[in-house]
Predict the structure.
Amino acid sequence: MVGQTSSGASRASGRRTAEPGETSDAELMAQVAERNTSALDTLYERYGKPAYSLARRITGDEGFAQDVVQDVFLALWKDPDSYHRARGGFASWLLSVTHHKAVDAVRREESLRRRRSLATQEFLVEQNANGVSQAVYDRVWTTVIGERVRGALSQLPSPQRDALVLAYFGGYTQREVATLTNTALGTVKTRMLAGMRRLRVVLGAGLAPEGGAL
Amino acid sequence: MSELDLTDARSHQRFEELAAGWALHGLDVSDEQLFQPHLDSCEGCQRTVDELVDTLGDLAFELPSDEPPATLGDRIRAAAAHYEAGSVRPLILSVSRKDRSRRPTVRSVPWMVTAAAAVIVVALGGWNVVLRGSQTSDSHATVQQQHLIHQLLAPGSQSTALSTSDGHRVAYVVTSGADLEVVTDGVAANDSARTRYWLWGVWGANTAPRPLGSFSVSGRCGAPPCRSVGGWQAGGQGDRFRRES
Ligand SMILES: [Zn+2]
C-alpha cells in the first residue's frame, strides 16, 4: 500500500542461512567494535539488500531508502554495543532498526507523508470495497509487497491485516490506525497483537503458496 | 510501577498489546512512556517483543528483493571513515612521491600510488597533536635516515614521503608487496596505551578515505628514525601493516 512499485518481477530474498565455517554475525559485530571495516563490509554484503528492500517499501523512495540504510549501518559502526543491548537474532534486530528509521523518515518528511497518504487512501478504499478490480488489487498487493507477503497476510482476518499493514508498511501509530480505520484504539491494539501472533504461526508454518485464501 | 496492576492477567494483556505496538514502532508517546519501564522489568514482555521482532524480520525477508545501488556500500564505507576521522583530530600531511630510480611495479600498492593526499590522524580524541619541527636538519640524522630508507627499499619496494603543509617531511610510507610500513621522523610520540596514529589512504577527490592501519610513535628513540628489535613494532618508530585484499 505504500509508495512506489518495484519494477519487474523480483524474488523474495528470504532469510539467509549461514554457510559452513563462515564468521557469525555476532563475531562480525565484535570485530566492528574493534573498528574492523571489513567486518562492516561483510555485514553490509549480508544484510544490505533486505534492509534496502524494506526501507524502499516503507519510504517509497529510493533516495530516502539509501539514506535509511546508510544510517542503519553507520549506527552499527558508531555504537556496536547497541546490538548487545538488544535481544534476539542479529538479522531481525537489524531489520527492526531499519524499519524504525524508515518509519521515522516517513513521519519526518512531508513529501513521503503525502505519498503515503495517497497510497493509504487507495489501500483503504480497496479494503472496504467488495469486488475490487483484480488489476488494482494486484498492483497494490503483489507488486509492492510481493506475492509471498501477500500470501502470508491474506491468512489473517482482514481487520487484523489492515491494522498490521498500516502500522508496518505505512508507519502509522496505533492511534493513527484507529483514526484511519474508524476503530476504537483499544480494538486496534488487540487486533495488532492478535494479527502478529497469527502471522507468527503462518510464517512459522511456511508461507502459503501464492494467492492464498482470503 | 504503573497504573496497571501486573497481577491482573487482563491488565497484563494490555501490556502485551503495547509490546506489539512497540515492535511495530507504532506506540504513541504516552504508551511508550508507560511501556518502556515495564519492558525493562518484565521478562514475559521482553520475550514477546523478541518474538514479534523476529516475526517481523521473517516478514521483511519475504518482501520482493531490490538490489541497492552499487554506490551504497561505498557511501556507507565513506560515512564510517568520515565518522572515524571526525571523532579525532586530524594531522593532515601532503604526500610527495619519492620513488627510487629502480621503480617497482605500481600494482603493489594502488592506494598509495594513486594517492593525492594521505592523512595521519590520532585515533582518540582529546590527545593534542603537536608536530615537532623537522629533525632532519641534522645532517647526520639525514644520512642515517637515507641509509635506513634504502635498507627498507628492497627490490619491489617504494616509498612515499609525508610532509607537513610547510614542507617538513615527517614520515615515509614504505610499501613492498602486500606490506606497508611507516617510518616516522618528527611525528610526536604518543601514549600507546591511550592513543594510536592511524594512516588513512585517500585516492581521489570523490573517493572515501580508507584506514590502512594504525601505529604508535615511541618517544624513547633519540636520533630519528630508529628501528626496534623484532621489526617495526612496539618501541620503534615504524610499523607494519598488511594490506587487506
Ligand atoms: Zn509484561
Notes: Residues 92 and 119 of chain B are 5 Å apart (CA to CA). Residues 9-61 of chain B form one domain. Chain B touches chain A through 49 residues (CB under 8 Å). The pocket of zinc ion is lined by residues B 12, 15, 38, 42, 44-45 (CB under 6 Å).
